[in-house]
Amino acid sequence: MTAPALIVTGATGGLGPAVVSRLAERGDRLLLTGRDKARLAELGKEYDVETLATDVSDPAGAREAAEAALAAFGRIDGLVHLVGGFRAGPYFLMDPAAYEGMLRDNFLSAVTATQALLPHLTDGGRLVYFSTPLADEPMPALSAYAASKAALVAWVRSIAHELKRGGVHANVVSMTMADTPQKRRERPDLDTDHMVAPELVARVVAFLTSAESDGLYGSVVPVLGRFEFTSELSGRPPR
Ligand SMILES: NC(=O)c1ccc[n+]([C@@H]2O[C@H](COP(=O)([O-])OP(=O)(O)OC[C@H]3O[C@@H](n4cnc5c(N)ncnc54)[C@H](OP(=O)(O)O)[C@@H]3O)[C@@H](O)[C@H]2O)c1
């Protein structure tokens, strides 16, 4: 069987290296996209994979990505949509543009990227998206982020029904904060025991882009590591 040909969007971000490394190690044929040309070039060199600087949240950019993958591999077998953004702040201080931005980063980018490649998934395919437990359990000051990820999850679960008869599997990884060097630098106060290693997320992405996940359509797979919601009121869970 030939190695799957996948588009990895937003590969320039925190989870990119772990995910790309895992899939490249498996022998997948990868096209990485992002808007940061310099970072993309570094990743392309390091993992010896195709890259394309484009914005997949724009329909023309998403079509360009699909065409580049077809030109490079002659086929497309799926999408790993790492594109995303994060904003925090009390809802009454967030202006409408911040909400629109979150919807574009976390939801509409998935719609445009997916629409561009769907016509090419003629032998079925694997689509993987990323959310957060906050989509189900929204915390204060995260309204725009939580709402945009909740929209993404509802959309994926809906399209999964539409796509399954064509052998296309659309699933979501729900993850907590990733334990990346950047995050450790930005937030030295954080309890890293509650964070999840990008390599653990990458293993689940490998599963969701393989025949091992044939039974999953529209699933939300939690990859939370040892994360737990805690509250001063609830007391500590038993150890
Ligand atoms: N890291 C975490 O702790 C965490 C936790 C829960 C969920 N997630 C989700 O998991 C996914 C991957 O995480 P990550 O940390 O790798 O994400 P990230 O670093 O925040 O973002 C990934 C990439 O998305 C691209 N991007 C952002 N907004 C975009 C837009 N409007 N249009 C096109 N591209 C855009 C950026 O690439 P360019 O600037 O090069 O285009 C960025 O490098 C994201 O969906 C994220 O929300 C992450």
From TrEMBL:
Keyword hit for Oxidoreductase: yes
Domain of life: Bacteria
Record-annotated Ketoreductase domain positions: 4-184
Molecular function, one GO term: oxidoreductase activity
CDD domains xref list: SDR_c
Keyword Transcription attributed: no
InterPro entries, per database record: KR_dom, NAD(P)-bd_dom_sf, SDR_fam
Keywords: Oxidoreductase
Pfam families: adh_short_C2
Family: Belongs to the short-chain dehydrogenases/reductases (SDR) family.
The protein's name in its UniProt record: NAD(P)-dependent dehydrogenase (Short-subunit alcohol dehydrogenase family)
UniProt organism field: Nonomuraea endophytica
